[in-house]
Amino acid sequence: MAETTEVKRQFVNFRFFKVLPEWRFLDDKLKERAKEESLNAYQEFSSKVILRSYSTLGIRADCEFMFWRISERLEDFTEMSSQFFKTGFGKYVVPTYSYLCMTKRSSYIDKISPEHGESRTKVVPGKYKYIFVYPFVKSRDWYQFPLPERQAMMDEHIRVGNKYPSVKLNTTYCFGLDDQEFVVAFESDVPKDFLDLVMELRESKASKYTLRDTPTFTCIAKPFKDILNDF
């Protein structure tokens, strides 16, 4: 019998930031040097972890950009944060939200595309223009249902999701690691499809057992160099 290779699970972090108002009053030459320091730190860690940057500037009042960080090593996140905050730009940045999760195989079977359950042990960000991120908590009543009953409700959920192939779902798990139970991140080039998907999912039976799914973040993929030039 052939040996099976265990798929290593990943740590995943969605970290949102806001730039302090004092940054805008700095001398332009000082700001350029500070931005260069931060860009160098970002690029250094891009070779160590899966790292994507997104802008939320002008979309939310409480954050202006986001790092999506993925690694098999949790310490990479603390080391990157330490180095980033020591840079000239990093000294004028404060984190406003941060969600820590891990990947794992889904408990529910996707009967339409069964390979999706295994693929969730590895998050591979696509080249989509937008990502929609929110933390998620189910009610305790949900976990009292036997697995077959939960699977039946999730079958409906999965059928709805598969109606929107332009929207890629990334589900990560937080039990015991952070305050929420899941973080879901939907990648897409078509925001209207995501809106219609979420609206339709509200009518599903499983939706009744959602305790909390806010705050919700709409983010635009953008190279970190371009994000720096926005400030």
Radius of gyration: 19 Å
CATH topology group of the largest domain: Alpha-Beta Plaits
Number of helices, where a helix is a run of at least 4 consecutive DSSP H or I residues? 6
Q: Which CATH architecture of the largest domain is right?
A: 2-Layer Sandwich
Average predicted confidence as pLDDT: 91
Find the structural class using helix and strand composition: alpha+beta
User: How much of the sequence is in beta strands?
Assistant: 25-35%
List SSEs in N-to-C order. EHEEHEHEHEEHEEH
Task: Tell me the count of domains.
Answer: 2
- Overall morphology: elongated
Number of β-strand runs: 9
Low-confidence stretches: none
Largest sheet: 9 strands, antiparallel
- For the termini, the CA-CA separation is 58 Å
Which percent bin holds the helix content? Answer: 25-40%
